Amino acid sequence: MAHYAEVLDGTVLRVLVVSNGVTTIDGVEDEQRGIDHLDGLLPTDGTWVQTSYNGNLRHNYAGIGYSWDGTGFAAPEPFPSWTLDENYTWQPPTPMPDDGNFYVWDEATTSWVEADDPE
């Protein structure tokens, strides 16, 4: 199965599945066949972009509200101080401590704050 994100103004509106019978010809998947199929079924002002569950295509699996910049999909920005890395993953200004404790991000102080164990 192939997955396609409908993108409008750089934002993913929905993700749909297209059968391999539609996207594959002579055993080779063809992205354009899926796009043409969806355009025929669901005309839209947006565009269809293929995505994949395992992230081997366009960095991340697209989800509703994700952004698309023509190269990769990125989750919505979690905090204003975080930056998007080359793998389209949001990174905090400082790494979360790796001491076995639980932490939450505090945007007001742009730091990690120890939290109670969620259990």
Describe what this molecule looks like in 3D.
13% of the residues lie in helices and 35% in strands. It contains two helices and eleven strands; from the N terminus they run ββαββαβββββββ. It has two domains: 1-75, no CATH class; 77-119, no CATH class. A three-stranded antiparallel beta sheet has the order 2-1-5. A two-stranded antiparallel ribbon has the order 3-4. β10 and β11 form a beta hairpin. The termini are far apart. The chain is mostly beta strands. The mean pLDDT is 92.
Structural class: mainly beta
Helix and strand pattern: EEHEEHEEEEEEE
From the N-terminal CA to the C-terminal CA, the straight-line distance is: 38 Å
- Mean pLDDT value: 92
**Tally of individual helices:** 2
Q: In percent, how helical is the residue content?
A: 10-25%
The major sheet is characterized as: 3 strands, antiparallel
Side-by-side strand order of the widest sheet: 2-1-5
Q: Which of globular, elongated, flat, extended, rod-shaped describes the shape? A: elongated
